């Protein structure tokens, strides 16, 4: 990965060097976990992911996820809600970081801006009482395009990364973690991630965040289907 890309990290000092926290980047390429894992490693932490189980079936990337101790999460069935919570609790007890993509899947936004978020990241942060740190990256699509299985290793790519300030979720702590509260907190996180990406891209993000359900798109799987 070092041969395939150089990583230009802005505000790396905001990345916690110890203690448990949720690390929440944007998501638009299936190789994102490897890229952000590299970023975490370069910043001094061993990353742990709650990643969708299908990623573990990918060649190379899936093998690396398994060998580095990452955690597959099923999208459906009776274990969908309980397993991530159990895994997060164990990681917190060990003082480890956990990477959770709030979007839950690759963004459906045509311009690859962050789409509507899901509540997994903020639920873990609020239930476990740990910080949530947003981040954005841009340039990964040159290494592997959205929904592609093909790596473009040469020439060497440049991936821009920006780390955000820990998000203050104090106003949500102590409240009943119902759907309204979790959605409100998730919106705060998505705003932070989008702002970081806008800085990296030097562009203005769409005024309204992409919502797959408003465009007859499935929440999981390839959005073209």
From TrEMBL:
<protein>
    <submittedName>
        <fullName>1-acyl-sn-glycerol-3-phosphate acyltransferase</fullName>
    </submittedName>
</protein>
<keyword id="KW-0808">Transferase</keyword>
<feature type="domain" description="Phospholipid/glycerol acyltransferase">
    <location>
        <begin position="21"/>
        <end position="140"/>
    </location>
</feature>
<keyword id="KW-0012">Acyltransferase</keyword>
<dbReference type="GO" id="GO:0003841">
    <property type="term" value="F:1-acylglycerol-3-phosphate O-acyltransferase activity"/>
</dbReference>
<dbReference type="Pfam" id="PF01553">
    <property type="entry name" value="Acyltransferase"/>
</dbReference>
<dbReference type="InterPro" id="IPR002123">
    <property type="entry name" value="Plipid/glycerol_acylTrfase"/>
</dbReference>
<dbReference type="GO" id="GO:0006654">
    <property type="term" value="P:phosphatidic acid biosynthetic process"/>
</dbReference>
<dbReference type="GO" id="GO:0005886">
    <property type="term" value="C:plasma membrane"/>
</dbReference>
<feature type="region of interest" description="Disordered">
    <location>
        <begin position="206"/>
        <end position="225"/>
    </location>
</feature>
């Amino acid at each position: 990965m070092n041969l395939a890309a150089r990583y230009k990290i802005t505000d790396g000092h905001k990345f916690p060097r110890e203690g448990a926290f949720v690390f929440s980047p944007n998501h638009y390429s299936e190789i994102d976990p490897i890229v952000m894992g590299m970023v975490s490693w370069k910043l001094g932490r061993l990353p742990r992911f709650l990643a969708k189980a299908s990623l573990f079936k990918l060649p190379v990337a899936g093998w690396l996820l398994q060998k580095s101790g990452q955690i597959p999460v099923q999208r459906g069935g009776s274990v969908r809600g309980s397993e991530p919570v159990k895994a997060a609790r164990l990681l917190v007890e060990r003082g480890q970081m956990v990477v959770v993509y709030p979007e839950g899947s690759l963004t459906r936004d045509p311009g690859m801006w962050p789409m509507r978020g899901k509540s997994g990241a903020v639920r873990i942060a609020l239930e476990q009482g740990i910080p949530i740190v947003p981040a954005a990256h841009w340039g990964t699509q040159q290494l592997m395009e959205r929904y592609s299985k093909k790596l473009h290793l040469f020439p060497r790519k440049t991936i821009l990364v920006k780390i955000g300030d820990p998000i203050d979720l104090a106003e949500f702590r102590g409240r009943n973690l119902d759907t309204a509260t979790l959605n409100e907190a998730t919106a705060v996180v998505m705003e932070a991630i989008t702002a970081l990406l806008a800085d990296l891209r030097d562009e203005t993000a769409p005024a309204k965040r992409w919502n797959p359900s408003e465009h007859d798109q499935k929440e999981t799987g390839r959005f073209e289907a």
